[in-house]
Amino acid sequence: MEPRLNIPVGSSPIHRVGLGTDLHRLEPGDRLRLGGIDIPFDRRLCGHSDGDVVIHAVIDALLGAVGLPDIGERFPDSDPKYRGADSRTLLAQVVAEVEASGHVLANLDLVIEAERPKLSPHKERIRQSLAELLKASPDRIGVKAKSREGVDAVGRGEAIACTAVVGLTATSR
Ligand code: MG
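Above: inputs. Below: predicted complex with magnesium ion.
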């Protein structure tokens, strides 16, 4: 896909920064939806939508960067419309809102925390998936995976967490 911002990463002035975090519990299942891709696993992430903790953190980072209400207000879990929603669709709406606000992604950096499964083999696919969803070049996206060394709910394999930071460049103001 053609990068939307056709200037070198190092020369993009950052006009806005956003931070998003999320955590979802795991339950028995047959696949893990992370960053818009499916990873074979014996557990799935619980949630009102598809539970994609990575996309939810990215959405909150984008919304925060442009000063919009957070994901819970934007896509309330009390609204049956979002039951089982594909988070990629929600992200597409937010990307359109970011564009409408006069900004484009300069970069995204994220840390996914999971005890199991090992995410290293899947990081590149997650990066490519997010690049496509964000209409950005993959070299603007960093995906890191960590464990929590057996400590707390994530460390015990009961949940997966994600932290995302985005930088945005102004396109029209
Ligand atoms: Mg969530």
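The mean pLDDT is 92.
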